[in-house]
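Next up, sample data.

:::
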Amino acid sequence: MTAAKLRVADVFEQIAVRNPYDGTVIGSVESTAANQIAALINRAKTGAVLSRALPITVPS
């Protein structure tokens, strides 16, 4: 399986993350529906397996 196949095809709504002191937007996170959580966890597990299979390289 390639990394491209792990991509989540859905476009999620962005939720603004605000600074609690002044209310400015400091970032954003994607929202997701509860019924999609299991699929996302399975994709993360598959990604972890693929990552473990990568060769270990040491910078020279």
About this structure: The mean pLDDT is 84. Helices lie at 3-6, 37-52.
